[in-house]
């Protein structure tokens, strides 16, 4: 069953179309990623899906309800983790969860038994009486995730859930998200971490300039768009080396002082590099970041 169905979605601001005919559909129990550079239309797409912004055109059906007309009814069955934590600093950890449950109209009798489960899920057992200011960044992020589960949602929107977290906190969030998927929850994820998208997403759509430019499972996108082997070559002489050795690669790209060599077989490239000890290199399989940069470009977006 489709939990989110989007067709022909469009939105323009000041004559510039920031969402330009977006289509996608979510199946129950999957993690679907929305990737794209800054300004690609990801946040506007999320706001449209949540009924927070009125579309210029298109259709949105979420949890069986037409959005934005019946967005309130649809939102009763979803959870949202915003890009920036918006926990109430005047409340304790427990009070933040309790008050959020009250927004959904739940009584104390319903909310109270859920709080210990949510604290355990967030790894915050024993911190229920702590003030928000005393929590680390990772704790706040986990509490924001737990808060989004107060209403036991079927569909969860995660907007860059691990930005600013250290590796340990990121891995703990990933483990919690896998647990949600195992429980049958459906997740919409936006992230700038390609390894996160590759690890969590069953399918994803890459947006640029308001359009979906490619869609599929991470491995499918890699196989579709990128040669299987990549050699990154570093150092002052890398560009001169590439001019002499490009014949061993299907294509080469330069970014700063790094040359990216994409090849069906990287062994000849690696063999050639062993004759140049002044250069450093990394030989690896192609990944989702290679796809992202090929499709959206390497130039900086603001």
Instruction: Give the N-to-C terminal Cα separation.
Output: 38 Å
Helix content: 25-40%
At the fold tier of CATH, the topology name of the domain at 227-285 is: Alpha-Beta Plaits
CATH class of the domain at 227-285: Alpha Beta
Radius of gyration: 22 Å
> Helical region count?
11
Largest sheet: 6 strands, mixed
Strand line-up across the major sheet: 6-7-8-3-9-10
SS elements, strand count: 14
Q: Runs with pLDDT <50, length 5+? A: none
The CATH architecture of the domain at 227-285 comes to 2-Layer Sandwich
Which term fits the overall shape?
A: globular
Description:
The protein has 302 residues and is an alpha/beta fold. Helix content is 34%, strand content 29%. The chain has helices spanning 42-49, 71-75, 93-103, 108-121, 137-147, 167-182, 194-200, 218-225, 238-245, 267-273, 288-296; strands at residues 2-13, 16-27, 31-35, 57-62, 65-67, 78-81, 155-159, 186-190, 203-208, 211-216, 229-234, 251-255, 258-263, 280-285. The strands form three sheets. It has a six-stranded mixed β-sheet, sandwiched between helices. A four-stranded antiparallel β-sheet has the order 2-1-4-5. The longest helix has 16 residues, at 167-182. The radius of gyration is 22 Å and the shape is globular.
Task: List descriptors.
302 residues, Alpha-Beta Plaits, alpha/beta
Topology:
Elements: E1 2-13, E2 16-27, E3 31-35, H1 42-49, E4 57-62, E5 65-67, H2 71-75, E6 78-81, H3 93-103, H4 108-121, H5 137-147, E7 155-159, H6 167-182, E8 186-190, H7 194-200, E9 203-208, E10 211-216, H8 218-225, E11 229-234, H9 238-245, E12 251-255, E13 258-263, H10 267-273, E14 280-285, H11 288-296
Parallel strand pairs: 3-8, 3-9, 6-7, 7-8
Antiparallel strand pairs: 1-2, 1-4, 4-5, 9-10, 11-13, 11-14, 12-13
Helix pairs in contact: 3-4, 8-11
């Amino acid at each position: 069953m489709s939990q989110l169905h989007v067709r022909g979605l469009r939105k323009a601001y000041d004559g510039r179309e920031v969402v330009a005919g977006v289509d996608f559909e979510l199946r129950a129990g999957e993690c679907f990623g929305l990737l794209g550079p800054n300004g690609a239309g990801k946040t506007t797409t999320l706001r449209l899906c949540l009924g927070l912004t009125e579309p210029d055109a298109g259709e949105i059906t979420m949890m069986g309800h037409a959005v934005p007309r019946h967005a309130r009814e649809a939102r009763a069955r979803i959870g949202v983790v915003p890009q920036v934590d918006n926990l109430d600093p005047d409340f304790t950890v427990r009070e933040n969860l309790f008050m959020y449950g009250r927004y959904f109209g739940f009584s104390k009798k319903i909310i109270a038994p859920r709080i210990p489960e949510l604290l355990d899920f967030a790894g915050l057992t024993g911190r229920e009486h702590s003030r928000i200011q005393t929590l680390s960044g990772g704790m706040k992020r986990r509490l924001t995730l737990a808060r989004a589960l107060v209403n036991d949602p079927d569909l969860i929107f995660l907007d860059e859930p691990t930005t600013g977290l250290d590796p340990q906190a990121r891995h703990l969030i990933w483990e919690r998200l896998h647990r949600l998927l195992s429980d049958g929850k459906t997740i919409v994820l936006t992230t700038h971490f390609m390894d996160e998208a590759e690890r969590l997403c069953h399918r994803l759509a890459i947006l640029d300039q308001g359009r979906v430019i490619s869609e599929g499972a991470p491995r499918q996108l890699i196989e579709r768009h990128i040669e299987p082997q990549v050699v990154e070559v570093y150092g002052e002489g890398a560009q001169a080396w590439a001019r002499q050795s490009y014949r061993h690669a299907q294509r080469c790209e330069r970014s700063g002082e790094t040359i990216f060599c994409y090849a069906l077989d990287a062994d000849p490239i690696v063999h050639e590099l062993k004759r140049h000890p002044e250069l450093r290199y990394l030989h690896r399989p192609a990944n989702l970041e290679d796809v992202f940069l090929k499709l959206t470009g390497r130039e900086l977006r603001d």
